[in-house]
Amino acid sequence: MLQRQPTRPTFGWDNLSGQRPAGLPAVDELPHQRLLTSGRAALFAAMKALGVQAGDGVLAPSYHCPTLVAPLRAAGAAVQFYPLGPDGLPRLDAITPAPGTKALVVAQLFGLPRSLAGVRAWCDARGIALVEDCAHSFFGQAGERPVGQWGDLATASVSKFFPVPEGGLLASAKPLPDQALRPAGGKAQLKAWVDLLERGSQQGRLTGLNAPLRALFRLKNGPPRAPSGAAPRELGEADMLAECDLGRSEQAPPALTGRLLGLPRGRIVARRRAHYQALFDGAQGLAGARPLLGALPDQAAPYVMPLWVDEPEPVYAALRSAGCAVFRWERVWPGAPGLSDFPDDHGARWRHHVLQLLCHQDLDDAMLSRTCDVLTRSLTR
Questions:
Q1: β-pair type (289-291, 304-309)
Q2: Which residue in 21, 36, 70, 96 has the fewest CB atoms around it within 10 Å?
Q3: Order of all β-strands in the sheet with 326-327
Q4: Each residue of 180-190: pLDDT tens digit?
């Protein structure tokens, strides 16, 4: 049976070795931080820290995962979507903020952070707070500043870069308002360790313990369930809010999250960079496809290698069928604009044409080769 590639970092013994420093700036180097259960919980906390109330305007990108918009709506914000340019940054000339707009959320996409100097100046001129969403970019230099240091607030998803069961981060150069977080109880603390060991053993990353742990978890879980063949249904806003699960946004993460943030970081950055390069090289010369943003910048720790595909459906289906670590942001928030609203919006095009090929540190060479082989076969046909 073909094993699906892990879609996020998975703990293994090799996580314990290597250089401790990352060699790049990191979001958690900001002086004021709060550890939360997820990146979406961090965005919700950012809205609360800015005093966003029901009806206040918040600007959000047209190209997004629903988990970016859900916390804004949960805080009561009236979300106004803005179009993106070819670099993934806001098309500032096309944005007319509604009266009462309090914040603009800009995403440092794909782990390829960019300067937000223009966005910072635009926000300052209008008295609008800037929230720098670093869910894809925990490490890196964003032009003239380290990643996370353009925004009044920065948010990050710890679980996209570290092998934690869950975790998000709210950070700022200035003190954060107090936020009372419910402590993680004993059940949540135990579940974090169980999830860590289960995922590690399933991926064969705990040499010496894989077989007994797998047997133990088979007893716990029972026979595997057959995947549902039902086509995904279109969701309304209430369904999306429920699916994004913001019920634990004001709960502290388990202690294990904080401990795993102390893992050596040199390996994380080095392997992500090497994996991006392998996928970038494998995409060269393919008919009808190209790396979206070109070669890897010197000071970036990528989350994915974004690939533009002219006719993406058969390629995406082939990659998914082969168990490759790939996804696409095709599910958007109800009311998000399309090309009929913003004809020059690159974000609306990217939803359909851009495949995000994961390049996290716990993939291996065989997995990357499988992805490149599937791409080559699919696009050669």
A1: antiparallel
A2: 96
A3: 289-291, 304-309, 354-358, 326-327
A4: 899 999 999 99
